[in-house]
Automatic annotation (TrEMBL):
Substrate binds at N170, R181, H188, F202, R203, S204, H205, R216, Y281. Homopentamer. The gene is rfaD. One of its GO terms (biological process) is carbohydrate metabolic process. This is ADP-L-glycero-D-manno-heptose-6-epimerase.
Length: 322
């Protein structure tokens, strides 16, 4: 059996689809299934068992001998949430329990970290120095929680025989319909263009960047789950790994490609970045991908043009799921 936590969420539900496509059907999905808006993400998938998040560790104690691999992708991902206690509970302490269970039962573990750990990027975006997480200063409690766990994991004298923490950069793609404000700009753009024929981007409040010139490493969710699948089959080099494309693109590029994928003329407007995130807004992110490439991952990442076209025309137009 393969365990996937956060399985009704965005990235994890796409991973379940990728595993099903490879004939892995004994999948145990773990989540808070009371959040009904997420449930369409896993509808119709081939699954072994549903386990509530709160009951999982008791379940694992009883069934660990049947478990082959754990993908721990469940987390609180709201970057605007300011209550550290929520992140301590769901992102830090739950992940510590997961790690300790994987040590106890010698189970391989892939868990979700985040590019948000790099903060404003002044120390770069390299995953090759295990001393760097101790120097990073994330910009919000979410990033702090992810970096706190990365630090804790690196410091543990006992580790799973294989483990990888994946620092997801700006992931976009199908199955994020439920995410509200935290959904990708592409989904917001699609909805705005469909309704109004125009879309809004955040105005730049940094003189080094023009409006729409803010840059992020946007990575398509199908590439993210391909890396997860690769690690399922290559359990040899443990550690922290960036997961972006390695190429930053502007929000203007993103917007123009969304209009193009919809066959609509571009009409882009700007509004002030909300004050609650203005001081912690990242103006540039770009993953250094050399470490993942060095362990044999050689699949090309979708360009922003390719990813947006597939997402818009393959999923958003019809409102379908991956």
């Amino acid at each position: 059996m393969i365990v996937v936590t956060g399985a009704a969420g965005f990235i994890a539900s796409c991973l379940v689809s990728r595993l099903n496509a490879a004939n892995f059907n004994d999948i145990v999905v773990v989540d808070n299934f009371a959040v009904e808006k997420k449930l369409p993400n896993i509808r119709g998938k081939k699954l072994r068992e549903y386990v509530d998040r709160e009951a999982f560790f008791d379940w694992l104690d009883a069934h660990h001998e049947q478990v082959e691999f754990i993908f721990h992708l469940g987390a609180r991902t709201d970057t605007t949430e300011q209550d550290p206690a929520i992140f301590d509970l769901l992102n830090l302490n739950y992940s510590k329990q997961m790690w300790q269970a994987c040590v106890r039962y010698q189970l391989p573990l892939v868990y979700a970290s985040s590019g948000a750990t790099y903060g404003d990027g002044r120390l770069g975006y390299s995953d090759q120095d295990d001393a760097l997480p101790y120097q990073l200063r994330p910009l919000n409690p979410y990033g702090d929680s992810k970096n706190d766990f990365d630090q804790w994991a690196l410091a543990q004298p006992e580790k799973p025989y294989f483990w990888a923490g994946l620092k997801f950069f700006n992931v976009y793609g199908p199955n994020e319909y439920h995410k509200g404000r935290m959904a990708s700009v592409i989904l917001h753009a699609f909805r705005q263009i469909k309704e109004n024929g125009s879309m809004q981007l955040f105005r730049s409040h940094n003189p080094e960047y023009v409006d729409g010139g803010q840059m992020r490493d946007f990575v398509y969710v199908k590439d993210v789950v391909e890396v997860c699948y690769f690690l399922l089959n290559h359990r040899t080099h443990s550690g922290l790994y960036n997961l972006g494309t390695g190429q930053a693109r502007t929000f203007m590029d993103l917007a123009l490609n969304t209009f193009a994928a919809m066959g609509q003329p571009a009409d882009i407007r700007f509004r002030d970045t909300p004050e609650d995130i203005r001081d912690t807004y990242q103006y540039f992110t770009e993953a250094d991908m050399h470490k993942l490439r060095s362990i044999g991952y050689d699949r090309p990442f979708a360009s922003l043009e390719e990813g947006i076209r597939d997402y818009v025309q393959g999923y958003l137009v019809e409102g379908t799921y991956y």
